[in-house]
Amino acid sequence: MIERLVNKLFSSLRTFGFLFGYLPFSLPKLNKIKSLKNEISVEEYDQLIHEVPQKWAGGILKRTKSEFIVEGLENLPQGAVLFISNHEGNFDIPTLLTHIPKPFGFISKIEVKKIPLISKWMEEMNCVFLDRSNRKSSYRSIQDTVSQLQQGHSILMFPEGTRSKGQGIGTFKSGFMRIAKEANVPIVPIAIHGTSNIMEKNNNKICPAHVQISILPSYSKEMIQENDSKQTMEDLHTVISNKIIELQSRHK
């Protein structure tokens, strides 16, 4: 039992040590990519920016010694999309950064902006920072997300708003539907299962887990514009929830 505990602690140190040890060495790369911003297309720039966070996230996941299976890559459309996913745990974003080849930014708590280097990369990834204690900030974050999508950048949102820690899927907040409608972009739903087994279910100690990611068929711009938003939101919740149940049944 003591040996198991030591192994868990060592795994946690290795994982978070890589997180903060890798970033200082990435700054020259960031500055070099930024110097190209006005010389290449939005798609090319986003792809270049995506490479380092993807490598960083992959390094973190590798140190958890977890197994990852992804399906549905053929469902990724061209152009900017709004990704929506259920939110199991803190390893959701590294998992999706690593396994989704399409570059994207995401909505993050405003507190993360205070972390040196991480925030610099996030700004270039077109992430949007949200202060949940400030209603004006919430409204501004919606407009900022719409703007990023309209400029051709894909964004990831977790409509539940908080981690489920593997306890099913929570109610969706409606903001993502308004964003997709105003930006006039497709929604790509994602079901993710198993990330909470890496940390949240282990007293926040890192353990190996079996993680499954399923990229589901997208909802087109036309469907989002023409159909009732409340019904579309319920449909998306059902589609993701049903896929999670299926993923759970595959790995019992």
SSE inventory with pairings:
Blueprint: H1 2-22, H2 27-34, H3 42-64, E1 67-71, E2 82-85, H4 92-99, E3 105-109, H5 118-124, E4 128-130, H6 135-150, E5 155-157, H7 175-183, E6 187-193, E7 210-215, H8 221-226, H9 229-250
Parallel strand pairs: 1-7, 2-5, 2-6, 3-4, 3-5
Antiparallel strand pairs: 6-7
Helix pairs in contact: 1-3, 3-4, 6-7
Number of helices: 9
| Uncertain ranges | 1-18
In angstroms, what separates the terminal alpha carbons?
Answer: 24 Å
Q: Provide the spatial order of strands within the biggest beta sheet.
A: 1-7-6-2-5-3-4
CATH hierarchy: architecture: 3-Layer(aba) Sandwich
Provide the gyration radius in Å. Answer: 18 Å
CATH class: Alpha Beta
The biggest beta sheet is recorded as: 7 strands, mixed
How much helical structure, as a percent, in the residues?
A: 40-55%
The ordered H/E elements are HHHEEHEHEHEHEEHH
Number of domains: 1
Average pLDDT, to the nearest integer?
A: 86
Coarse structural class: alpha/beta
Number of strands: 7
CATH fold name, please? Answer: Glycerol-3-phosphate (1)-acyltransferase
Shape: globular
Our estimate of the beta-strand percent is: 5-15%
